[in-house]
Design goal:
Distance between the termini of chain A: 39 Å
Radius of gyration of chain A: 23 Å
CATH topology of one domain in chain A: TIM Barrel
Number of helices of chain A: 18
Largest interface: A-B, 132 and 133 residues
Low-confidence stretches of chain A: none
Strand order of the largest sheet of chain A: 6-20-19-16-14-11-10-9
Oligomer: homodimer
Chain lengths: ~500, ~500
Amino acid sequence: MNPFTTNNARLLSDEQLVKIHEASMEILQQVGMEVHNETARELYARHGCEVDSETLRVRFPPKVIKEAIDSIPPTFTFYARNPDYDRTVPEDGPLVMTASSAPRVLDPVTRQERSATTEDIARIARLVDRLEGIDLFSVSVLALDAPPGQNCLSRFYTALKHCSKPVRGSGEVGSGSVREECENVLRMAYTIAGGEEAYRDHPFITHHYCPVISPLKMDEDSTELLMYYAEKELPAHHSIVPNAGLSSPLTLAGTLAQGNAEYLGAAALSQMVRPGTPLLYSYLPTVGDMRSGAYASGGIECGILNMAFAQMARFYNIPCSGYIGLTNSKLVDAQAGYEKGLSCMGGLLAGMDVLQFAGLIDALLTFDYGMAVIDNEISLMLKRVARGMEVSEENISLDEISQVGPGSMFLETEQTFARMEDTALFPDVADRDTRQTWEEKGGHDAWGKSLLVAKEIIERHGLSYFSPEVDTEIRSQFEDMVPGEVIIPEGW
Amino acid sequence: MNPFTTNNARLLSDEQLVKIHEASMEILQQVGMEVHNETARELYARHGCEVDSETLRVRFPPKVIKEAIDSIPPTFTFYARNPDYDRTVPEDGPLVMTASSAPRVLDPVTRQERSATTEDIARIARLVDRLEGIDLFSVSVLALDAPPGQNCLSRFYTALKHCSKPVRGSGEVGSGSVREECENVLRMAYTIAGGEEAYRDHPFITHHYCPVISPLKMDEDSTELLMYYAEKELPAHHSIVPNAGLSSPLTLAGTLAQGNAEYLGAAALSQMVRPGTPLLYSYLPTVGDMRSGAYASGGIECGILNMAFAQMARFYNIPCSGYIGLTNSKLVDAQAGYEKGLSCMGGLLAGMDVLQFAGLIDALLTFDYGMAVIDNEISLMLKRVARGMEVSEENISLDEISQVGPGSMFLETEQTFARMEDTALFPDVADRDTRQTWEEKGGHDAWGKSLLVAKEIIERHGLSYFSPEVDTEIRSQFEDMVPGEVIIPEGW
């Protein structure tokens, strides 16, 4: 468990947490939410909400929200194709997830931007499968090459073919009927698992949706999915996405209060469908850059809001997950590094369970292969901090200090040899050579080196997680399915 | 004050802090320190230490250390030429200081490494003078062009000529008699201040020294300085520099216990000279990379140790300062960004008062002008986190949320206009344009942009803080004094 779930850096006092909670309750009761899905409105009404079917406004008595909060379980499990990679929070945290659904990629050969395809997803899936610091694969990019109606299907097919870690979906909404698209994905999942029952025993896809359009509006389709997943007992959760100055007040406290209201309003619906439905408290809060209206996801205020939302989640005893470690940089440079580094450490020390950031740059618009490798290294550093410092008689090393004595060296003590491998991380990307050695080795910057590491990992992987029989069966069920093969482009 | 001095991320529990404290007391009592300065040994003996004049070993009864701890004041003040820039910790924290005494510079024109000179110090002084996020100027580089015997003098002369913030020295030890060199610096300071009395009223140089060579050895010269500054009531403090696996045990707890013992042993001497001498608890703890023995200052373990030392300092109620946010990168790339970002945020949230990192790369060997500008931006981000989130009725914005209502926008509310300037930072370096606009503006990475910002600031500054009379007087006192002028090299 992330030790800072309890010993965390406290941005907000207990009293302030209560104030925000009360403000959220007041927002839900006085302003309410505009709910566009009729079934949802009916459900809200049946559970004690005040519903105005003209304005679509749903108002929540505090009691309704309180019941929902009490009914959300304190843990959430991500299942994987390979059960060794199953992860439950808070106990297995901190976990790191890829950031997802970028429309574009920096081509690893030209380093120029282009549209993302399932060829990218295949390579990324292998990379994530092997990056030790990345626990959860939220499919990083969209698929321009997906056949009509197979948008989600192509992405999941390719991701599951090459990655045995938990796969999280995002963006199941879009082409055609949401329910049909979702049912197709499940049909494929049953085939992969060897039947519906086997899949339901170990459901290795986690569904994700954003039913709330800030401020305080619940849409038709994602709300439909929210209810569908809860009803079918499929692992799923929603995220709220307030953007201060654009879709929430231009104050951090106002954005927190409104976002918290939005989270709770949608969470209540899942509990109304099926009490005890597991959820994450998941958020992507940002602040607009008021000079241009730009989406300033790399801004430190995004980190501060993540820290505060983590405290709210702890206040309700719901495991939490945030989009953090984001950057506005267009490439993998110092800006990408410090924007990610600062907010990720903030999230860790505020006690977050899941940090979602790996692989993306340019305000979630673009994936870069090298960035994913560097983010893996950031993740290992965060996990090293979470491991902390063992204070034992042996580790305090009084005898060794006494034996070595003033003015001597510890380099060759028995204890130093014994601890060589596990006291400190050995990074793959971060360079520690002398300048001369570094120059002799080619003088790569971190981006250049990370792209080489990415290529090497993808090339070496060489596995598909679908047997030929399963693959044939899936491909016969869905005509025009993308190939989903891993290709290393010339010149990488 | 850094709000995380109290609401901090706690790496160590209270019980663990006591264990480390007790281990340090045991180290000081059982092993002791090897003290090479005879006057110091006499002083230690006079105050109750057990001194072996054959082995030079000084052993400390717990009572002696306890008295010293109780006598160190809870605050420390950095004085500046311009009193508006005076800073006291903890109350004015978190403060950011430049990292200091690099022998080399990346030339801003060629981006190649070369030796540092006072020409660099002049430019850096102007830059630091104007970078809003940097509070304290520890002279960033050495001076290859200093005349014999004027090593410190040249550096301070040039730094004070162009920077009106607090200037901290480092490395007064080296050429010739330390006392003579130090007295020359003070003579210059009196001239600048308009006399000795005026200087002593507002001593704008803070002296810094490293008397302890880990493990547990106190040298001749820096120990001499420690006593000299305490006796003369000059602002000064020492840092300890244990390196796990090389000069301390290869465990974090062992390095913490030994480093803490070293800090306290030297601190006791300053209190013996003059009880109540203000001090910082200052540290530069690192872990060696055991693959090569490299000084892995960018490693996350350096951040973890900083967090732990901050907790020790709080335990004793001594204001603290750490070398953190260091990097092993050879240039200003993603590695420099994430190594700095991660550990700086760790230090902030652990409650550090002073973070010393700005400007250096390559394990403290090299200064880069762009890095200083980027570190200023990191500092502003840290200070934004420290400012936190105001939770007031006005900031929670219930009325505004109610007025805007579900599905609308906050972009044009009166409150948004009113808060435009102060909710979020507007960074100078971090790019937030669309990719297209960014390309049209030249497609600079953060390093390229930061070098342009640095040049612009230095060019625009155009001030010297020495009157012609003072400058003439100093130059007549010290023959061969370096010019100390600001030159913008061709092609920057």
